[in-house]
Amino acid sequence: MSGRLRWGILGAGWIATKFARDLSYGVTGRVSRVASRDFVAAQALARACAAQASESFEAMLRADDVDAVYIATPAAFHHLHVIQALSRGKPVLCEKPFALNAEEAREIVEAARRARCFCMEGMWTRFLPTMNELRGKLKRNELGDISQMSVDLGFVHNEESSNATLTDPALGGGALLDLGIYGVSLAHDLLGMPREIQAEAVISPTGSVRDVSITFLHEKMKRPALCSIRASHSTELRNALDISGSRGRISVDAPFIRAIQARMSPLGPRGRTAERPSALGDALRGSRLWPVARGLARRATGREGVAFGRPFVGYGLRFEAEEVARCLAAGQLESPVMPLSESVEVLESVDRISALISDRGMQDGLELGRVPTVAE
């Protein structure tokens, strides 16, 4: 396949618009067609991209000028739409979450392998330059033995006023599948499949997960590691990612899902981030100027960490599209960054979390539960 990849976009909402705009910042792809149940919205997005609007998804799949399809419909329709595209032989990039549950995900994987057609979940944060660099640091053991990871992601989405796609459980909405899925996927990516899961949540009367707190125990590394994940539709959280090891700590600046920049802080001999002694600092300790002097010292000595990563234009969705183009050019049927097996495993963890917060909880606040993820 030569030249720019010609994309067909199914959906004309917020994320589809972001994806289309981000494609224009790269050189590997362009929007060729847009389809949506709202034809007027499809026409508007197509005009903005100098593309064509198809009257139906089926019409777009029949088009000769579509090399790959981006699925940007509500999560409840991902299973249907991905399999429909694969049956027509179209490579697919599906917006996260890959499906509503692991069973649906397995059926998608079976369809992709049966059709021998490329398919990938659009967990776009994995493909960002800063995250690639972070993975490299972990592989080189720059943090030493990982012991803790924490992920926070929360934005206010009221059920009454927000987009139903984000909050309606019938459409795959709620804080778990909308936001918590980022932390679950990153935990699988960086620490492996969790052995044990604990979870608690607050669920609205409509069944929408408003707040969720998850703890994973991982045993893939040399020593066990804990991962804490919090997601919220009720409030804004720190929206940060922190990974701590025996040699240092990496913090990804908020919002971590865009991962524009991260900082690595090595630990000194006393097990704290290194800070050179300062005679002036010692003299000011305890005075009114101490907080200011301490902040200046941290920045001057690298106590706040050595920054890495690189800025980029746009939201960051073009990097997943570039990965699709790379894989197709190489003749690969799935991405090593987001393999199909891992999309299934992530949703297996989500299924276990859902079982905990639905079976052991109450509508106004759920008890902490535990479920093993492998045979014990």
From TrEMBL:
Residues annotated as domain Gfo/Idh/MocA-like oxidoreductase N-terminal: 5-122
The keyword Oxidoreductase belongs to this UniProt entry's keyword annotation: yes
Family as reported in the entry's similarity comment: Belongs to the Gfo/Idh/MocA family.
Lineage of source species: Bacteria, Pseudomonadati, Pseudomonadota, Alphaproteobacteria, Rhodobacterales
Matching Pfam families: GFO_IDH_MocA, GFO_IDH_MocA_C3
Organism from which the protein derives: Alloyangia pacifica
Keywords (A to Z) from UniProt: Oxidoreductase
Annotated GFO/IDH/MocA-like oxidoreductase domain residues: 133-250
GO molecular function terms noted in the UniProt entry: nucleotide binding; oxidoreductase activity
Protein name listed in UniProt: Predicted dehydrogenase
PANTHER family attached to this UniProt entry: OXIDOREDUCTASES, TRANS-1,2-DIHYDROBENZENE-1,2-DIOL DEHYDROGENASE
